[in-house]
Amino acid sequence: MEFLVTVAEFSLWLLLIVLFGFLSVVVFEAWRRRHSNVSVETTTLDDPKSIKPIPCPHITDPAEKYLSLIVPAYNEELRLPAALEETMDYLQDRASRDKSFSFEVVIVDDGSVDGTKRVAFDFIRKYTIDNIRVIPLGKNQGKGEAIRKGMLHSRGQLLLMLDADGATKVTDLEKLENQINAVAREEYSIRNPASKDMDFKIGDVQVSAFGSRAHLEEKALATRKWYRNFLMKGFHLVVLLAAGPGIRDTQCGFKMFTRAAARRLFTNVHLKRWCFDVELVYLCKRFNIPMVEISVKWSEIPGSKVSMLSIPNMLWELALMSVGYRTGMWKIHQV
Where in the cell is it found (predicted)? Predict the structure, then answer.
């Protein structure tokens, strides 16, 4: 028998989630203030060729690479190798054709208990730690936190987040890159009319680009069961209420930021799991960071960790975000 979801039940659950969210934010803020003097653990890099951890760079440091690719990985022993091989083939081929192109791949191991770390180390041995780096989180903290750590400790002028399963073709990063470049140059010329083009540095202008699967929605609606479509539509409505219009597909795991935008956004993001993407949209609007949404090629890869059961958790996080910002309990940090 199929599970029936009524509008009344959905509304009731949403109300309960909002109420619990409010209480959670109050408790969390009280705990944070009480423990605000606790030191923050220093993030380090793992190097298979050294027994000593390597200190990480920080997003506030000057850029050392043109492009950083941040890959969150939780138990991705099986899916990570093929995605990394395809990514490295593309990056090395581009670097051979363009001597000014430099890159790094930052794998954030989100507390994996399988062979994810071993796979990442194999790639470091093959491509060197200058091109591939591993940040261990120790225990599982969530995709949002993994990406936040990767962004904060990357060296690129442009920073791309992408999933470990390779669902989006890495070559599509050029679509995002070209749009960011166009918007950044326009923003730069408006704010610096007297400056010459040679003074332009793409990493210094705040722009964000969101990969999108919205063009595939019609086909997905036709193949999913009606109650799954109902839940997804309900989730999209809540996202619209929480973050406002502008981005149709907030959950695509393929997003690019200039270094200036990443510095502003990822020093402020609070959510640690699935809905951090929605918070990024909210923060872009809060900071007036230009956003562009670009269609990308996407294919379903077996082994996804997102299911319909994830939606209640997503609604919970959206309630936390809404209450946190609207009550002023979540502070905005100026970088």
Answer: Endoplasmic reticulum membrane
What pLDDT digit, counting tens, does each position of 151-180 carry?
999 999 999 999 998 889 999 999 999 999
User: What is each CA distance from 265 to 153, 197, 203, 278, 324, in whole angstroms?
Assistant: 14, 26, 14, 12, 16
Question: Could you please report the per-residue DSSP string of 274-294?
Answer: TTHHHHHHHHHHHHT--EEEE
Contacts 24+ apart (CB under 8 A), 91-99: 91/67, 91/131, 91/170
Helix (H) or strand (E) holding 132: strand 132-136
Distance linking the first and last C-alpha atoms of the chain? 54
Please state, as a whole number, how many other Cβ atoms lie within 10 Å of the Cβ of residue 126: 12
pLDDT digits (tens, 9 = 90+) for 108-136: 999 999 999 999 999 999 999 999 999 99
Reported pTM: 0.82
Non-local CB neighbours of 97 within 8 Å, separated by 6+ positions: none
Q: Exposed (0-12), middle (13-18) or buried (19+): which is 20, by Cβ within 10 Å?
A: middle
Q: State the DSSP H helix or E strand holding residue 72, giving kind and residue range, or none if neither.
A: strand 65-73
